[in-house]
Amino acid sequence: MKTFLPFLATLLISTAALAQGNQGLVFKNPILDSGNALEVNSVYLFKSVTTGTNAKIRLDSAVNGAELKKIDDNSGGLGYLNAFQPEIKIPNHSTNAYLVFTVTFYDSATGNIRSLSDIQATALDIDGNTAMKEFIELGMSGGTASFRTGTLDISVLNWLSNSFRAQNILGIERTGIDTAALGNMFTVSKGNVSSYTIRAGATNSLGGSGNRQYSIFMKGFNYINTTTLPVKLESFNAFLTSSSKVDLKWATASEINVSHFVVEKSYDGVVFGEAATVFAYGNTTTKMNYAAADNIANTTSPVIYYRLRSVDIDGKTSYSEIRIIRLSKQTDNTVTILTYPNPAINELRITIPANWQNKKVVYELFSANGQAAKKVETSSSSQTETLNISSLKSGFYIVKVSCGVETAQQKIVKQ
């Protein structure tokens, strides 16, 4: 008899947009669309998840030895037939082993990517024991997370201002997939979603390897004594406007009980200090724009790192992604770029010379044998751009960046 420590993530599409009542989405009978079954880069097609809409689920990456054993396991009455239910093997003594999936919606008639007006993703039954504790991260590039206050088996964190992560902390095993176990679940809500990511895995500090059943069930839930963590940041950018000033600009898609924002900067990317504080609007569902300036006239460091800290009225904080400003020397005729992280898994950030920003910049990636792998053009580039490289195969790549007649390149490793 197989033993699983399951969690359940639930997705519900808005009834107002597609008139589906409270039926939600239906994921069943997957078809291998491309790639090798159960391997990284495999893509599975789920037809008619709702009226006029298909979905594709891609296995983007396997981290720290996690393995996909089954893409959608409904055997033996386990879980729910209409759920997306991957079975994942967690290896021995893994601090943080997980799989990364991307779910994308398509118009079933045209094949074009389709945006759904409102999605609620509820992670259920995130349990564990003394050896192994499950976690789930839902990334929709925004939204809000709601969960029950009081006694909780999980800790819910606002992760890099773009996703929410729930980690089992008590190490108590719950029986089956129990939708009444409110202490083991949380919900992420977001509008206008065409694609989002799921990171499903566990920490395994003591025991041997084990298979886990994960289930994406299409149903929403109401909470008692709800707490809400907002993800309100839509963008955050840094621009070098002169040799003595950096402009910081950001926008929020919505705000719930937000107190203020703190712009933080660092010269080594590790130790950050406050550079500016801006008070927030507080509560709004309307897009709000903010700005601050940092005086760098006396800065001698060639690189400055910036991040934005959002502070809610109850003291909870969340951080943006880091933006990098490079201060070029007038006598330096060498054009260089900075890429990170390296090795990279899903996203690659590229920092270009200061005099290239706000201009047309072309970003290209070439495989080790010289074949073009990816190309992105921006008409008004920020100093740091983020490229999605989750679809690239593992290996060495050359990053080539061009602005007019100037070019720079660097080698990276894609894991």
Offer a concise description of the structure.
The chain is mainly β and 415 residues long. It has one helix at 15-18; strands spanning 7-13, 31-34, 43-50, 53-63, 67-70, 87-90, 97-107, 116-124, 132-139, 143-148, 154-159, 163-168, 186-193, 195-204, 210-217, 226-231, 233-242, 245-252, 258-266, 273-279, 288-295, 303-312, 317-319, 323-326, 338-340, 347-351, 361-367, 372-378, 384-388, 395-403, 406-414.
Average pLDDT across residues? 82
Trace the largest sheet across and list its strands: 5-6-15-1-8-13-10-16
Structural class: mainly beta
Helical content class: under 10%
Distance between the termini: 35 Å
Count of distinct strands: 31
Describe the overall structure.
It is a single chain. This protein is mainly beta. Helix content is 1%, strand content 53%. It contains one helix and 31 strands. The strands form six sheets. It has an eight-stranded mixed β-sheet with strand order 5-6-15-1-8-13-10-16. The radius of gyration is 22 Å and the shape is globular.
